[in-house]
Amino acid sequence: MKKSLFLSAAACLIFAACATTGSSQAQSAPVTPSKPSVPLSAPLSAQADKIWPAVKSPIGLDAGIETRIDALLAQMNTAQKVGQLIQPEIKNISPDDAAKYNIGSVLNGGGSWPTGKVDGPLAGWLALANRFYGASMDTGDGRLAIPIIWGTDAVHGHNNVQGATIFPHNIGLGAANNPGLMRDIGTATAREVAVTGIDWAFAPTVAVARDIRWGRSYESYSSDPKIVAELSKEILLGLQGHPALGNFLSEQKLVATAKHFIGDGGTAGGKDQGNTVLSEQELFDIHGQGYVQTIGAGVQTVMASFNSWNGNKLHGSKYMLTDVLKGKMGFDGFVIGDWNGHEQIPGCTKSSCAAAINAGVDMIMVPDDWKAFLDNAVRQVNAGEISQARLDDAVRRILRVKMRAGMFDDGKPSTQRLAGRAKLIGHKSHRAVARQAVRESLVLLKNDNALPISKRANVIVAGSGADSPSMQSGGWTLTWQGRDVADEKYKGFTTVKDGFEQAISSGTVTSDTATAADVAVIVFGETPYAEMEGDLQNTDFDLTSSADFKLMQSLKARNIPVVAVFLSGRPRGVDAAIQASDAFVAAWLPGSEGGGLADVLVEGDYNFKGKLPFDWPANGSGQYKPRGYGLTYTAAARQ
Ligand code: BGC
Ligand code: BGC
User: Fold this and answer.
1) Active site residues
2) Mean pLDDT throughout 170-176?
């Protein structure tokens, strides 16, 4: 990302009045690019025009950038232009092929590492970023030097990288609901990603999950659109920076993505990639708020969603992507498709889909079939199935974002300020932010005098989640589904049990459940899952076959007070476990800093702050507690 500050942004800092306009371009004349940035959108109906707002990005068009794009476009042939639209997965393309086919971008998917191994050397990331960059800037054979942009799912920290700080998943951050903290999380995440030479994070997810049977509910901050909108905006400011802060896409920042546009959290039955059936007004009121806020804060990319709206796949919706998002809402960055999302449009396949490009997807995430897709798209342009104007518009948007990010001028990834600074991965200052987030995310649902626990108590800490980095972290951690990685590979993690060992100063901590104790902390919950595999038929959590639940009951029978800690990506019906325990804590998916649990559960400097970001269901049907609920403790510590 670029090395220099915007001069006008620096001026904003000095002349505070400028910041109140929210725009570094406030004093400069409006810029009209020589080709309009949204030539292809149709005006909305009078009714729709009232629903969708015009949003003003604080970035604005820059005459110099638009002129530079004109000059580049004039030199590009069709194949070179189409290449910019293609995003293969790093496992499926070599840097040489990226050069040969003028490829504009690559991604690494969940659980994809440059060395092919979760515990390969950290330096492998930067080395591969350098190789792709070098290939993209090689002007041999008449090629043009256009830097390639690498995207990664840094959705709760730089989560594919061993040793990175892993923040709580979004649902926990919704419980914490602390905007300032979100900015710190975005800042720390951007720094860790910058170490690896990557310029782009597929975050934040601005989904508003409305049915917690959806397996991606934990990627949603809340069922409340207001909370989602505010927290998304703040983490975005941390990730991308902002002109008024003088750090927009500066060296420590990344291009960010608001995803998945639109209605991903509203599908019938919570079905992943399903159909969201809503009026246009409801779609905007519930699922549109995160986009209003993030576009208004300058987000540079938006990811199209797998789901449909009223039966139509978003990847094929010219109305939503072009007329609404780019036209009325004024989004001037680029739209990235989701993983083969285009193939779900009727008439399309993985390797051929003019309809997605025509609808407004600017860059196609086509992890493996990229070569055939590229050939087909070139043919479709030549045959007029994709217009030259549309192709130029897509390329213009991609080049605009690359130029705003300073990628043309910065040199290779390893020359960037934070590149290769291994000490920043999992840095203690980042871990401190994550641990604060864990503390603030915990929601106390019940306390019959069991909390706080005395520092002098003899404590049993047991249950399947007590010493489990994977259960603490959930999906999108080291691997896609968050499974199948040995505990010792979660480098730098503090488990819940480790945290108790540090916090109990003069008592004892044991996992021996047969021993006598003053209190038992039983950590249980969901095992990891991600998209496609996490959907549920109903929200009841199966306690009948749970060894953890049997343990709670046997401890109770021995008159040992039980503190139940539930690790999960969403609220679940756990009535009998709540009844069987003296205190019940919803801990969500806290990530690498499990010590945040003992910080709050053991007497000391902290109390509970978290409030339910979703309603908590009772078993069968109905509600146990509504959104917004969350206790604090007042009682003296229990010995
Ligand atoms: C997910 C996106 C993710 C992408 C790349 C998709 O399946 O829906 O959220 O960014 O994969 O891993
Ligand atoms: C990838 C993910 C992707 C998913 C979609 C996985 O193999 O690692 O990033 O989202 O496939 O199918």
Assistant:
1) 338, 531
2) 99
CA distance 208 to 531: 15
480 lines ligand 2 (CB under 6 A): yes
**233: buried, middle or exposed (CB in 10 Å: 19+, 13-18, 0-12)?**
buried
Asked if the structure places residue 387 within a domain, the reply is: yes
Distance 529 CA to ligand 1 centre (A): 14
Q: Residue 202 CA: which ligand is closest? A: 1
Q: Are strands 519-525 and 508-510 parallel, antiparallel or unpaired?
A: unpaired
**Beta pairing class for 200-201 and 301-304:** unpaired
Which residue, by CA, sits nearest to atom 2 of ligand 1? 338
Rounded to two decimals, the pTM is: 0.95
In short, whether 410's Cβ falls inside 6 Å of ligand 1 is: no
- The pLDDT value recorded for residue 639 is 45
Q: Are both 411 and 449 inside the same structural domain?
A: no
100: domain CATH number? 3.20.20.300
Q: Which DSSP string do the residues of 43-85 spell out, in sequence order? A: PPPHHHHHHSPP---SS---HHHHHHHHHHHHH--HHHHHHHT
Paired tokens of 122: 């950290």
Residue 39 has pLDDT above 50, yes or no: yes
Same domain, residue pair 387 and 500 = no
Give the distance, in angstroms, between the CA of residue 604 and the centroid of all CA atoms in the same chain: 33
